[in-house]
């Protein structure tokens, strides 16, 4: 390819695709490979691609005697949108299958970015409420706790939505989210309802940390993108610090107005029976996926994969291997199953993996660790222990998912070869191998 105009269009298309993938939580390695695959298929060889947390850069030396073509695109929007991510994934597949050239691809990309969502925004708010209610259930809360947690979650979503429209930074959104969650706990305590305020706050902390890229940070570190990994980790820690500030501010307000909540322990969990954990995790994952605009056809498979992962995690923990091995085993199973399921329902594996892993994320451990470290004194050692545990769980989840994907890819290739050899529609009866002549 030597046409400068065509090269410019190709680079711009690749950067727009990469921006959408990166803003939706894709790992830097996946973004780099996808951009390079599209560029190569459109005739651009040996393009230089640089992916960081806030920008994408791409350059190509089309002539040794001419200056290289270079473009940089900043990543400003970071709202998780799995519907757009799925549309971009389908567009990439169409490009690689020669069903779309650079001009059609650019037109479709512009449509994806500009067209709004068919899902009403108030349904997303309800989905967050359902998610927090399910979290409260598998953490050990009763019906009243689940109801209060759901109302608090919907209130937090509306407050953060209003703040986002005024372009306030995410840190302040997390602070106000923590304040709102604590105010609901204070209201429950002031009304003398027989509930544990800790569970109300804990369920909403899971919501506030659900979209934070703990696992993405570890994934980037495992694949060699250390700068991006460090940036994601700093963002996660800053978001958690915002929650701590919000909760402590709410507690201080409660003391000023004379509301005694007793010993509030955000991050506390009672951990109900296995079947409650499994069902709660399934509902939590499906609700998170819906709130993240996942295609409707993916909700039931996501719930099933998450339930399988939660059950596997609990079984491994009860077998005496500990939480880290339980999380790693569950993530490995999720990674393997998600790869096959994603192909069936035509969504990227990332949509299934992230949603299914949300109930297993170590957000509570990170919150407890930072809270204890901030308290100082004799709590520092406990805070360090909680942070080490959280880091171990995050590494186990990320490495387990990646290993599952590595294992699933050759398995799927072999399964496809076997399927090509089998004869007839296999709805019932034995499978008969067809001999090639």
TrEMBL record:
The keyword Ribonucleoprotein does not apply. Residues 12-253 form the Threonine/serine exporter-like N-terminal domain. GO terms for cellular component: plasma membrane. The chain crosses the membrane at residues 126-154, 175-193, 199-218, 230-253, 273-291, 298-316, 322-342, 349-370, 382-408. Its main location: membrane. It comes from the Bacteria. It is a multi-pass membrane protein. Keywords: Cell membrane, Membrane, Transmembrane, Transmembrane helix. Pfam families: ThrE, ThrE_2. It is found in: Cell membrane. This is Possible amino acid export carrier protein. It comes from uncultured Nocardioides sp. The lineage of its organism: Bacteria, Bacillati, Actinomycetota, Actinomycetes, Propionibacteriales.
